[in-house]
Design a protein that fits this description.
Rossmann fold, 2 domains, five-stranded antiparallel sheet, about 40% helix, globular
C-alpha cells in the first residue's frame, strides 16, 4: 500500500464483519464521514438498501450530503451495477477493473484529495458462493492501491464469511487486508449457524507473543460471554502460538470464530506444512498437538496455504 495523498492518513485495506444492517450502516457512515470531515472524498459502493441507509446516517451526523455530491467529494454507487461493469463470466476482469475503479478513484481524488471507499462488492460475490472471485477482487483492490491514493473498507456479513467448508478462503481473505475487525453478536444463535462472531489479531514472533495471544483469546471470549471455554481456548492458542514462534520461527495471526455450538481457534504462520508420509500433522499424546487433539475431541486440523504458510485450527464444543 502507498501513503494516501491529500489530507487523509496512509492508505489501508480494512475488512469489517457486521452482525446486523444497523452495524453495517454505522461502520460505513463513520468511515465515510471521517474522510469528508478531513476534506477528503468518500465513495460508497453498496446495495440499494444500504445506499439509502448510509446517506441518511451521514445526513443525521451533520454531513451536507447534497453539497458533498455537488463538489464531487461524495459518490454513492450501486454495488451490483458497478460490479457488472468489470466482470466477465462472473469473474473480475483485471483490465476492466483497473479502468473502472481507476477512473472512479481519479474522479473522487481530484485536487489531491485522499479517498475513502466503502464497498460490499466482494461480499456480494462471497454470498453468491463465488469465493474465488471475491478473493480476486480483494487482490485487485490491493493492486490498485499501490498506484492510487485510496483506502478501502470492505464489509461482509459475519454470518456468511466463516461457514462450513469456507475456513481456508476466510483465512486467505483476512490475509489480503491490513486490518481486521468484527463485533460479537449479543447472543449465540442456535447450533448449526455457520458464524455468530469473529475476531482476529496478528502477533510478531517473540517470547511474549504466546502470552499476548492467550490474553487476546481470553478477552475475546469474555466479551462474547463464552467464559466456560476460556481455559481450554487459552491452552489451545498457547500451544499453537508457541509452535509458530519456536518451531516455525514466524509471526502469526490468531483467529477466533463463534459458531454458536462451537468455538474455533486457529493460528496462521508463514511456514508451509511439513512433507510427511501422509501429508498431515500428527498429534503426540500429552503435549503440543496431542493436548489440542484431546481438548478438541478430534475436531482439529491443518490447512495448507501453499508457499505462504499454514493454518492450524481446533474447535471446542460448548
Amino acid at each position: 500500500m502507498i501513503a494516501g495523498e491529500g489530507h487523509l492518513a496512509a492508505a489501508r485495506h480494512i475488512v469489517r464483519f457486521c452482525a446486523t444492517d444497523s452495524e453495517f450502516t454505522h461502520r460505513a457512515g463513520s468511515y465515510l464521514r471521517d474522510a469528508l470531515s478531513q476534506d477528503g472524498a468518500a465513495v460508497a459502493i453498496t446495495t440499494a438498501p444500504h445506499r439509502r441507509a448510509v446517506g441518511n446516517w451521514l445526513a443525521d451526523a451533520g454531513v451536507d450530503v447534497a453539497a458533498a455530491r455537488s463538489e464531487g467529494r461524495y459518490l454513492d454507487l450501486d454495488a451490483r451495477e458497478t460490479l457488472a461493469r468489470f466482470t466477465t463470466g462472473g469473474r473480475p476482469d483485471r483490465r476492466l477493473f483497473q479502468r473502472e475503479a481507476g477512473a472512479l478513484v481519479r474522479a473522487a481524488g481530484r485536487a489531491g484529495r485522499g479517498v475513502h471507499a466503502f464497498g460490499e462488492m466482494a461480499a456480494l460475490l462471497w454470498d453468491d458462493g463465488d469465493l474465488g472471485a471475491a478473493l480476486e477482487l480483494e487482490r485487485l483492490w490491493n493492486e490498485l492501491a499501490r498506484t492510487r491514493p485510496v483506502s478501502l473498507c470492505c464489509a461482509y456479513a459475519a454470518s456468511s464469511v466463516a461457514g462450513h467448508g469456507r475456513f481456508l478462503e476466510f483465512a486467505r481473505m483476512c490475509q489480503l487486508h491490513d486490518e481486521i475487525a468484527s463485533s460479537p453478536a449479543p447472543a449465540p444463535d442456535p447450533p448449526g449457524v455457520s458464524a455468530v462472531a469473529t475476531a482476529s489479531r496478528s502477533f510478531t514472533a517473540g517470547p511474549v507473543a504466546p502470552r499476548d495471544a492467550r490474553v487476546f483469546v481470553g478477552k475475546t471470549l469474555s466479551a462474547w460471554g463464552v467464559t466456560e471455554l476460556a481455559n481450554d481456548a487459552a491452552l489451545v492458542v498457547t500451544e499453537l502460538a508457541t509452535n509458530a514462534v519456536v518451531h516455525a520461527r514466524s509471526g502469526f495471526t490468531v483467529m477466533v470464530i463463534d459458531r454458536g455450538d462451537t468455538i474455533r481457534v486457529s493460528v496462521r504462520d508463514s511456514v508451509p506444512l511439513p512433507l510427511e508420509p501422509r501429508g498431515a500433522l500428527t498429534a503426540s499424546p500429552a503435549h503440543g498437538l496431542g493436548v489440542i487433539a484431546a481438548l478438541a475431541a478430534g475436531r482439529w486440523g491443518a490447512q495448507p496455504l501453499g508457499h505462504s504458510g499454514k493454518v492450524i485450527w481446533a474447535e471446542l464444543a460448548r
